[in-house]
Amino acid sequence: DGGITQSPKYLFRKEGQNVTLSCEQNLNHDAMYWYRQDPGQGLRLIYYSQIVNDFQKGDIAEGYSVSREKKESFPLTVTSAQKNPTAFYLCASRGLAEEIQFFGPGTRLTVL
Amino acid sequence: KNEVEQSPQNLTAQEGEFITINCSYSVGISALHWLQQHPGGGIVSLFMLSSGKKKHGRLIATINIQEKHSSLHITASHPRDSAVYICAALTGNQFYFGTGTSLTVIP
Fold it and tell me: Model confidence over A26-74: pLDDT tens digits?
């Protein structure tokens, strides 16, 4: 069963703590993306990666970091520098020759 | 100004009604996507368009490249169509997303 998994579905963290969101895909896709969704706003790009060991900042990368050590995995770390981290985070992937993007189920992060 | 604008923001319809959601974009695109987001947050891709019209069941998507405009139509709407519909424009390697149209279909 091919697809994208994100874990956990719900995450709570105390202010000042770093937290890492997992994203794994078994679709053999080269490109992976992290988006943030806030109420009333469109999805905003945090980071994307087109190849292992390479990634680019999106529109709202400040306070976030990523790694791409394996093709299947693209974890996102929300650092304490992110001023307003409470949001819904979506991971997506795409084959570079394809134009359709596949989304994971999302992680809802709440900072207490 | 957002690169992708959708209207309306919210839409309530009676079951059976014909529904239209509009999307305008200002960037050059290689493809335009219509996505459906369910209340739990999961997103599925409904259509990918670069020209003309596509139909899948009761859903129809059209695009006018010259006018930079796309529409999503739902015929014979049903309560299970209630969701947020999002328009996304692919330009280069990035997607630009509209803010979504929240559709509620009342039985």
Answer: 999 999 999 999 987 889 999 999 999 999 999 999 999 999 999 999 9
Q: Cβ of B99 under 8 Å from any chain A Cβ?
A: yes
pLDDT digits (tens, 9 = 90+) for B26-49: 988 889 999 999 888 889 999 999
Interface check A21 vs B, CB under 8 A? no
Chain B residue with Cα closest to A33: B94
Give, as one character, the DSSP assignment of residue B81.
G
* Ordered strands of the B19-25 beta sheet: B4-7, B19-25, B69-74, B59-64, B52-56
CA angle A21, A23, A24 (to 5 degrees): 150
**CB contact B89 to A (< 8 Å):** no
Q: Taking CA atoms, what residue in A is nearest to B6?
A: A42
